[in-house]
Write a structure and sequence with these properties.
The protein is built from 11 helices and 7 strands. The protein is of the alpha/beta class. It has one domain: Vaccinia Virus protein VP39 (Rossmann fold, 3-Layer(aba) Sandwich), CATH 3.40.50.150. The longest helix is centred in the N-terminal third of the chain and has 14 residues.
Length: 263
């Protein structure tokens, strides 16, 4: 999962640049202290550090492995002095990363739906921010699509059926939670992401393989045997139709971001 998240940052670099650019339009003054909740291996932390070169980012995650990878990458990117990590369960005490004072920006990407009590977490984020500070919450509306209708393996429409079978939860919606916590909603922005292999870069094949393999792990009981067999061929590096070997791939997905301010 850590590698897939790192690939997400590589392949969707233009999207992260666009999103952090939007945040910069609302941030006045530019943030000095940023809190990345559920940071994983640092995809968001690094994007924020690039956009706001004077800011210090505190990356918070429950996984020591994720934070270890983040720290190694921070050194590689030359921002180790501007990113610190805190290993903690967000559903428990925030004292360990609240002692340094209020934050200017709280970032939570593909994370809020994991917390035990979203209302409490939004209320804590409100308390963590200075007056005028921002919170940015992002959710993936659906896993990316990569393949053509006819992949050359099995029946056409395999990827569409895979998504329909595994995407059983309704889209996340945080507008009311933010307002109930006391925030003023500034923007609810859906990002329609469409990238070809040139725009996505050389990591697209590996990213597609990882994403489809993750969906495959949830599909055993919900796809028929023929579709599962076709999917296994597509995920086999040795097969000529493998996703890893394809010269032509694209990425299509949407992500939604809520930006709100503490009055």
């Amino acid at each position: 999962m850590a590698k897939l998240l790192e690939l997400d940052g590589e392949v969707l670099a233009s999207y992260f640049s666009q999103l952090t650019g939007l945040l910069a339009e609302f941030a006045d003054p530019s943030p000095d202290r940023i809190l990345d909740l559920g940071s994983g291996p640092g995809t968001g932390s690094f994007a924020l550090a690039r956009r706001f070169p004077a800011a210090h980012v505190t990356a918070v995650d429950i996984s020591a492995q994720m934070l270890h990878r983040l720290s190694k990458q921070a050194s590689t990117h030359g921002v180790a002095d501007r990113i610190s990590t805190v290993e903690v369960n967000i559903d428990e005490s925030w004292a360990e990363f609240s002692e340094g004072g209020p934050s200017d920006l709280v970032w939570a990407a593909a994370f809020m739906h994991h917390v035990a009590d979203p209302a409490r977490t939004f209320a804590r984020a409100f308390e963590q921010l200075r007056s005028g500070g921002l919170v940015a919450v992002t959710e993936m509306d659906f896993f990316p699509l990569y393949l053509p209708e006819d992949t050359g393996v099995g029946r056409p429409g395999l990827e569409t059926r895979l998504h329909a079978a595994t995407s059983t939860q309704p889209p996340h919606e945080w507008t009311d939670h933010l307002r109930d916590a006391g925030f003023t909603l500034l923007e609810r922005r859906p990002f329609d992401i469409r990238l070809d292999e040139t725009q996505a870069g050389p990591s697209l094949n590996a990213y597609a393989m990882g994403s489809l393999a993750k969906l495959r792990s949830h599909a055993t009981e919900v796809l028929d045997a023929d579709d599962l067999a076709a999917l296994d061929v597509l995920l086999d590096d040795e097969q000529p139709h493998s996703v890893a070997r394809r010269d032509v791939l694209s990425l299509r997905t949407t992500r939604t971001t809520w930006i709100a301010r503490r009055p």
